[in-house]
Design goal:
binds magnesium ion; 673 residues; 17 helices; alpha+beta; five-stranded antiparallel β-sheet; rod-shaped; binds adenosine-5'-triphosphate
């Protein structure tokens, strides 16, 4: 987990897309796995191939040894064959040396020997069968001859010095003479083997009938520049097989470290006679007497090789037997395998990459859709639904996402609805507030006007009473003067009118308290109508009565409320001089527990600018002084004292509706204004 945390802090990794991360982790695993298995696999295969080759060479060396041994056995066998029987003792005893020489020459040629020499019992040469046919020299120091003089039949590899070769046959010395050729990695030439010959040599005692030693017959085959053994080995093991113009297999016989018989070729295609063994092989095989099995650089190419020492009769290492297989075919095979491995690896990586691309696309697609959907949601598109392809974690995520979308849509709708109703509510509330504010203003205006009016009315009332009283007295005294009488009547009439106004002002100023009693409001309406309907102003007016008989009794001052109804009815009549319809409705507004009476006329209506003033005292449009402008002001005061409401709704040219609302629980006393 800590590692993950640390990784998320690397800005470069943070910026990578999910797909890249998935792909690179896939790739990382595949590449690391691929490289490791390729390395191990190729190493294993390469080792196996090289090991196989090395093993083969080891067996090849055994074959070469057998061939070499067989050649030596052949020498021993033919020398033994020549010495056997009575021929040599017979010629010796009879002194017929010439015949003996002919016999031996014939044998030497017949058996393919390079040397066939007879010594006497002491080791002194009697007959040589090869030019220059010299004799008389003492060979008793030769270990083979020493052993043969002991009546043993012996055969072994032997190193023959140049002088001896010259005695045995002058062209042998010539054949044995090899000029050392320097090659890469070769052991430096010590010079000790120069001119020497390496020979497969056998020595056999020549005995008379009594078993006495008459002499020693020895013969040999010079190995220098003799290719029989090496070519036989190659033919046996590798046939004529060639690889890219080079011999597949080679064999060599070394004298010391010097190549004296070989089928290894130099640059010119000649047998690489005179070249030398590499330093490391020299040290291992000649100096330490070990078997060498490894790759070695032979003349100009790398070979998988095996070397073993060749020993003389005394066991001294005198040379080396070698077989080698060209390394190139095996290396090529190994490379082929390695390349195949890597080819398969690369193909595998490519396949995995393709596969993981498709897999990650499948995994990531729903996530991309989700990212797309969240963007769409941010832009305000909520009506989306993600497809659910799988039931895995991502499928579950998509399901939760869809669920969340549904919830989001619901919540949003609720919010919108709430917003809408909120607007309506605010509108309603502000309408109500406006109304209340208007009413409050009206109340305050009327209250201050009421106080003023009451003061004025009281001041006027007393002198007015005086004027009326004295006018009546004067009228009585001046009965006989009709002229003065008329003038006095005018004074009384006008004063009475002033008195009416003053009473109205006092009413408006709430001087008279309501005497409340339970009252049937319908009956009160009908009573008021009956008082007025016969007046001329009502002649052309149709009165429609929609009175709800269920309307309960209301606690009120019948006189005062009747005054209100009367005023409203008269106003309606005034508004319909040419006639019209007056509709009176009563009903119970259960919601607010109000009894409601509505007067709707089809008269002139009230202009917008006047609508706010009609409840003001002395506001009248009745210019002919018929009206005082106190009617509605007084009515407002009365209804207000009943804790009721008086509302007006009017449209100019269409008509006016007055609505009076009286509360059913109008219990307590109303405080004066
Ligand atoms: N139903 C109505 N139709 C048209 N205008 C009306 C109506 N009722 C009242 N008015 C207007 O309101 C004014 C005030 O009415 P209010 O009753 O207070 O006084 P008035 O009727 O003019 O005088 P008074 O009532 O003293 O005779 C009226 O002059 C009239 O212009
Ligand atoms: Mg009026």
């Amino acid at each position: 987990m800590n590692l993950l945390k640390a990784l998320t802090k690397i800005p470069f990794l943070n910026r990578l897309s999910l797909r890249t991360k998935l792909l690179s982790s896939f790739l990382f695993v595949v590449i690391v796995g691929g490289i490791l298995s390729s390395l191990i696999g190729t190493q294993l295969v390469a080792n196996t191939i090289v090991l196989q080759a090395q093993n083969k060479v080891k067996y090849d060396l055994s074959t070469a040894r057998l061939v070499y041994q067989e050649a030596l056995n052949h020498v021993r066998y033919v020398v033994q064959l020549t010495a056997a029987g009575r021929t040599i003792p017979h010629y010796l005893e009879s002194g017929r040396l010439k015949n003996l020489t002919d016999y031996l020459i014939k044998r030497r040629k017949e058996f393919g020997l390079d040397v066939l020499t007879l010594t006497d019992a002491k080791g002194k040469v009697i007959i040589r069968t090869y030019h220059p046919f010299q004799g008389g020299d003492d060979r008793s120091a030769d270990p083979l001859i020493q052993r043969a003089r002991q009546k043993e039949i012996v055969a072994s590899t032997a190193i023959v010095p140049r002088e001896e070769l010259e005695l045995e046959g002058s062209d042998l010395a010539e054949r044995a003479f090899i000029i050392p050729v320097p090659t890469l990695k070769a052991k430096e030439y010590p010079g000790e083997q120069e001119g020497m010959g390496m020979m497969l040599k056998a020595a056999v005692p020549v005995l008379d009938d009594a078993g006495r030693l008459l002499g020693v017959l020895y013969g040999g085959v010079l190995l220098n520049r003799n290719y029989q053994i090496v070519d036989k080995v190659r033919a046996l093991l590798y046939g004529e097989g060639r690889y890219k113009g080079k011999d597949m297999g080679t064999a060599t016989i070394f004298l010391g470290g010097l190549r004296i018989s070989t089928n290894v070729r130099d640059e010119k295609g000649q047998r690489a006679i005179g070249t030398r063994v590499s330093r490391e092989v020299y040290e291992a095989v000649i100096e330490k007497g070990e078997l060498w099995e490894d790759r070695a650089f032979v003349v100009k190419d790398w070979y998988i090789t095996a070397y073993e020492p060749i020993r003389d009769l005394r066991g001294k290492i005198v040379g080396v037997l070698y077989v080698g297989m060209l390394e190139a075919p095996y290396i090529d095979l190994r490379n082929k395998v390695v390349f195949s491995f890597f080819g398969i690896g690369v193909l595998g990586v490519f396949l995995v990459l393709m596969l993981s691309f498709f897999i990650t696309t499948g995994i990531i697609r729903p996530l991309r859709e989700m990212v797309w959907a969240t963007r769409k949601i941010a832009e305000g598109h909520y009506s989306l639904e993600l497809p659910i392809s799988f039931k895995d974690e991502i499928g579950q995520l998509a399901e939760s996402f869809n669920h969340m979308l549904v919830r989001l849509q619901q919540t949003r709708k609720e919010l919108e609805d709430y917003g809408r109703t909120l607007e309506e509510k605010v509108e309603q509330r502000s309408q109500q507030l406006k109304k209340i504010q208007m009413q409050l203003m009206q109340s305050e205006k009327l209250a201050s006007l009421g106080r003023l009016a009451s003061g004025v009315a009281h001041e006027i009332n007393s002198p007015l009473t005086g004027i009326l009283t004295f006018s009546h007295l004067l009228m009585r005294k001046l009965k006989d003067n009709p002229e003065l009488q008329r003038e006095l009547e005018l004074i009384v009439k006008e004063t009475t009118r002033v008195s009416t106004i003053v009473r109205g002002l006092l009413d408006f100023a709430h001087e008279s308290k309501p005497q409340k009693r339970p009252c049937n409001i319908n009956a009160l309406i009908l009573h008021t109508i009956s008082l007025l309907e016969h007046q001329t102003v009502f002649h052309d007016i149709r009165i429609v009565k929609n009175l709800d008989p269920q309307v309960p009794l209301v606690l009120l001052d019948a006189n005062q409320v009747q005054q209100v109804f009367m005023n409203i009815l008269l106003n309606a009549a005034d508004a319909m001089p040419a006639g019209g319809t007056l509709t009176i409705t009563s009903n119970l507004a259960a919601e607010d527990s109000y009894v409601q009476v509505r007067f709707a006329d089809t008269g002139t209506g009230i202009s917008e600018k006047d609508l706010g003033k009609i409840f003001d005292p002395f506001f009248t449009t009745k210019a002919d002084k018929k009206g005082t402008g106190l009617g509605l002001a007084v009515s407002y005061g009365i209804i207000d004292r009943h804790r009721g409401k008086i509302e007006v709704h009017s449209e100019e040219g269409k008509g006016t509706t007055f609505t009076i609302k009286l509360p059913l629980q109008a219990s307590e006393e109303v405080p004066p204004l």
